[in-house]
Amino acid sequence: MHIKRVLITVLIVAGCGSKRESSKTDNSNKESQLIRNGVFLNHKQCGNGELTLLFVHGWCIDQSYWSDQINTFCENYKLVTLDLPGFGNSGKNRTDWSIEEYGKDIGFLIKQLELNNVVLIGHSMGGDVILEAALQNEKVIALIGIDNFKDVGAEFSEEVRSEIDAFITMLEENFSQVAPAFAEGSLFHSSTDSLVKRRVMNDFGSADSLAAVASLQSLFEYSSKETDNLSMLSQKLYLINSDATPTNTTGLDKTGVDYEVIEINATGHYPMIEKPEIFNQLLKQVIQKIEETR
Q1: Beta strand spans in 210-257 (E)
Q2: Which of 48, 55, 86, 114 is least surrounded by Cβ atoms within 10 Å, i.e. has the fewest?
């Protein structure tokens, strides 16, 4: 298997920042200082409502990728976004970049902000982060994955593992060129707008290489735990996944998790910025289902 196929499998399947500011139209956003174990958690809040929507971004990007959702959903819901440590404007002064540690960051955020009725929404790598957080927190009532959990239970051969190791080495040696090249070759649809491509590639290239490589290695490791962790999940899992690559439901079925897959047509790995209006319509439908079952 070519390394490009390996990495797109892991980033999209397992659920995988630059310093971009959130949209200037987000005038209702509120910021407060939160520090966990000495690491600053850059986050924003807006809106009010019984339901809290907490958005978690994916690998090498940041919370600004949720600007179109902020502008749409703050009117009716409490909404929280954050930069995961190592990305965006959050702190980079830690040594543990594991999915488990990111899950604790989300739990800390929920506790400190006194959030209730929390719906965790995680894109790419953020899918595993919200899974880890949900297993630790009774405030979470549902999970929404964005283009992730597409091949739960997939196992890597020795050949694939060697290719993964080789790719990690390439990132360590020349991250600013290898990461954007990987994005360009693997994560977009043929119809993806050139400005979206440029944005993602720029963010990949300018990401903190230490945090990025370490968190990617943790993502590989965590993928082997997905089946067991999903089997322990009591909340329902909704997936809004691009139909550019299929969602293999066999692995999900084996976990026993309560799930539902909603497909979005003809986007790459970033449906929330590629087709924001259609994505928001689908997200609204999912949130309404969650409200109806409460």
Answers
A1: 236-242
A2: 114
Segment (H or E) for 119: strand 118-123
pLDDT at 19: 39
Q: Where are the domains of the chain?
A: 3-292
pLDDT score recorded for residue 21:
39
What is d(CA 187, CA 61) in angstroms, rounded to the nearest whole number?
13
pLDDT at 53: 98
Q: What pLDDT is stored for residue 172 in this prediction?
A: 97
Q: Which residue has the tokens 């800390």?
A: 108
Domain covering 3-292 assigned CATH 3.40.50.300 in the classification: no
CB atoms within 10 A of CB 160: 17
Distance, CA of 139 to CA of 111 (rounded, Å): 9
Give the residue among 131, 109, 63, 102 at the shortest CA–CA distance from 215.
102
Record the tokens describing residue 104, joined without a space: 């604790």
Tell me the one-letter amino acid at 220.
Answer: F
- Which amino acid type is present at position 176? S
Residues of the chain with pLDDT under 50: 1-6, 12-28
> In this structure, are residues 102 and 90 in contact, taking their beta carbons and an 8 Å threshold?
no
pLDDT value of residue 294: 85
Q: Is residue 36 within a helix (H) or strand (E), and if so which, with residue range?
A: strand 35-36
Three-state SS at 202: helix
